[in-house]
Specification:
- Four copies of one chain form a homotetramer.
- Chain A has five helices and 13 strands.
- In chain A, α4 packs antiparallel against α5.
- In chain A, the strands form three sheets. Chain A has a nine-stranded antiparallel sheet with strand order 1-2-3-4-7-8-9-10-13. Chain A has a two-stranded antiparallel ribbon with strand order 5-6.
- Chain A is an alpha+beta fold.
- Helices cover 23% and strands 43% of the residues of chain A.
- Chains in contact: A-B, A-C, A-D, B-C, B-D, C-D.
- Chains C and D meet through β2, α1, α2, α5 and β10 of C and β2, α1, α2, α5 and β10 of D.
């Protein structure tokens, strides 16, 4: 947050931030013949007093976004990147110290998963196929401290039964019938906040993801809303390191196709999938203070 | 905002919102043989006390997102849609009244521009080509009142000279040379807030857009940052109806291609365009209180 | 086309081609203070006898795709680029001569349109906004000669009336009612072949595009199919330099929203737009031999 | 192919085809509590004599694309869909018989993979996550007979070593240095043609894919070109049911980041990934006649 900078009596720059986005970094580490791979997309965003540049055109205190890019690659060289959270914290602290007028830094890292190719039942040492979904870390640091968030992006999940939408509010424009058995499908986006900057982030991320998936399967879903809450509650109950969790769940509608017109029954077998419009269900579940 | 709802002693639903996205609506109005067209993408998002549904699986107070979709089409029928801001306000007020436990509504409308096809120098009455860029309105309403925002999305702008990036901060990872004459290109995203819900939104939107474009052309740009501020300041100075304006400006880098390797000069003629990484410059300019 | 290369008695490389795609080039030319801009995406694809590389791993006759990229930028420096067709022909001839075993070259160039920003009713000398749609040229050269194609991509066109779909074939799975007045909307993709490599390609391209748009408006359309043919016939009749023209026209369905459920009439006013599925109508119109 | 239809003395419709694209179909089959899922995107394209419609605006022999959509859902109801190839063949034959003037049909089916969620080490009966990559089948039928093709789309593969690009052709615009150890990464698109319409397509598809992946890992790659040929040859040698196979392999360049500027070594550890431009390597390997 830039402190308000008077320019004319009444018009000010009330907020300014800038950074570099989409820095695509692959790091290969070798343990003998066995290679490991980190495939990352890094965004840096700086907050601070940048009014000299914005208001007066004076760049002398401005870190170039090209420098941010160089820095990410240079720091990656000697960083063990034991997790994207740990790497993100080191990047955040570096930029907080480096930018002359920087007061806050946000680092967002997306990691693309790669699975080893199986050859004769053995995992290959250096050949991979890309998996589905993405892992995300968001690190925010300012004078008040550091926040570590983790998340999941673009993971499609679906159940073919044990889901419905019934007894909802009806008024003049309501035409949707009750559904007692429908397909539930969504593109999972979740992000959660850790209680501490010192944790086993690798293990935790997998464990939170697994809990979300297991809870997705374990109940009759009366609504995306209720399934969202159940997934969040289960994560918090089983993970003391998680302070809160937020979900954004587009409802990827799978609608029964009307076959009765052709004298055929459709007993929850044939669905058409629509991309738009879609319901969007969001919510945050957290520990009360 | 859902009031905190205890479920176990310590885990609560701290926020919940839901709605319908990507409702694609075209309305044709006829003035004799001359047709007008509104091509819209509408998102509805409701805030309120939805804990019965999220926490307990009780949908009785829940407006279905399918009902939201129906409502948008039904209200569009008799609405003059004299502007997307006006239509958005009426939608927002409708959903605030309709949802049994709704306390806040956000409507976001994107309008796609269509230009009349010219035939023998005359504008055709009912045939169109789609133009570039999009117009946006975001209406937020709750017990505290109504906010009306407008904006521009996906408008690419570029100037081939009168732009540079010099005398910036240099440290150990800085390699970028000074540039006194470069291409400046961005995908313009701007959103601004009106001081009132009663204004000539059609005229204002065009006027704000024109002012942004004119200011983009009228100065040597020492940085995207400074051009951002100048565009914001010019809009506020010439539009008393605008309270504040925010920009998000990705720097679409156009880099001089190194032709010296082939014994050729490159006097700011030949550029390669890169999609990633990109600088991202943001800021808000507003009237001080 | 690689001549069949025996490797085992029975398995051969029957065709091979390779090249560089998505070379993004901007050229700025200055006429005093007035700047002109060519914003291009260039693809190169080479045909030839590449079996030494494919079959035997011997790269000695292989032009690197990185060299192709360099060449595009280097040739652009001194080329006037009076049209993308002319630039494409020179690129094609260059690669045909340069690659040691190259027997054919295809160059595809997409040009993105930029319009000058208006300031006080005057076109600005060096500031632009990007327009809609793209212009395309495809140049193919081999021992048999050169072919020059031009085209339009991604131009959305729509008419709000004077279009229908009636009296079509009906059988057991047909449920669609006749439509006498509907919205016709498509994303225009057209490509046409010139009779000669010597023509005024700038003027021709605009003239063909204008003819397509005018014909789109000038008749009652009983089908996308018939409108396709009419547009092609009109282009050929008015442009002796065009040998044939091909269209690919997705039918962007705009469906009447059912308002009768709410006691409302929908007199061709309120439409919902669907992205999928879509009809796809293609055809080629040409001069008979 | 429409037979040439004279309209004026000299302008004819030389080819016409139309169909329905992006028909998104999910079929759920239940074996007790265990559910199976087919998630498909189906395209239909018809060839035939459609000149009455295109040239004369007479639709009486035209199957509506909406009817095609209905048909896909209706036929899916009773079809076992034991493979997408088998379902595609039945769709193709249906449309060949049904369209009054249809002489050829092409059906393209993309299948999205879904993996069962693991709960306590057990595969869940009805809950899934979407996997990476897609399976494709293309069925073509006309009076001359039926062709069955299968394929892979959008499968990202990468190896961190055992790949290079050396001793290639050098000329005036060549600047790329030799690489003896680089990352090789591509988005695999492959399509192959079966020798017969009667085969175990489920088993074959998995087996071909596995062979491609294994061959990708098993050699030092002197070029994408040579790896392409090796993968094709290995598939043909191990699969007598495959007549030919075609690959389209974009080279997703992973470039060593220059750390020497910062006094650091980069021993094949730190790479930046670029999206454009990209090399594109294609080829067909087949059994000689």
């Amino acid at each position: 947050m830039t402190s308000s900078t008077p320019t004319t009596p009444s018009i000010v720059l009330s907020h300014a931030n800038y950074g570099k986005s989409a820095v695509r970094l692959v790091k290969v580490t070798r343990d003998g013949d066995r290679h490991d791979l980190r495939d990352l997309n890094v965004d840096v965003m700086l907050d601070g007093d940048f009014s000299a540049s914005y208001v007066d055109g004076d760049n002398r205190a401005m870190l170039a976004t090209d420098t941010m890019r160089n820095t990410i690659y240079a720091l990656a060289k000697d960083d063990p990147i034991e997790s994207i959270e740990a790497f993100g914290m080191r990047l955040a602290q570096h930029f907080l110290k480096t930018g002359p007028t920087v007061t806050g830094v946000q680092i967002r890292i997306v990691e693309y998963p790669w699975n080893r190719i199986a050859v004769n039942g053995q995992e290959h040492e250096h050949a991979f196929t890309r998996g589905a979904g993405e892992r995300v870390a968001v690190i925010s640091v300012d004078a008040a401290g550091m926040t570590v968030q983790a998340g999941i992006d673009n993971l499609l999940i679906l159940k073919t039964t044990n889901s419905g939408w019934e007894d909802f509010y009806r008024e003049q424009y309501t035409t949707l019938p009750d559904a007692r058995d429908r397909i539930l499908a969504t593109v999972l986006t979740a992000d959660w906040t850790y209680t501490s900057a010192h944790a086993d982030f690798e293990r935790l991320w997998s464990s939170v993801r697994d809990q979300i998936l297991v809870t997705f399967t374990d109940h009759y879903s009366p609504s995306v809303q209720n399934t969202l809450f159940r997934m969040g509650k289960a994560v918090l109950e089983s993970h003391p390191d998680v302070q809160k969790i937020h979900f954004s769940l587009p409802n990827k509608h799978h609608l029964l196709f009307d076959l009765a017109r052709f004298g055929m029954e459709n007993d929850n077998q044939i669905f058409h999938v629509t991309n738009d419009p879609f319901g969007l269900i969001e919510g945050t579940v957290e520990r009360s203070q």
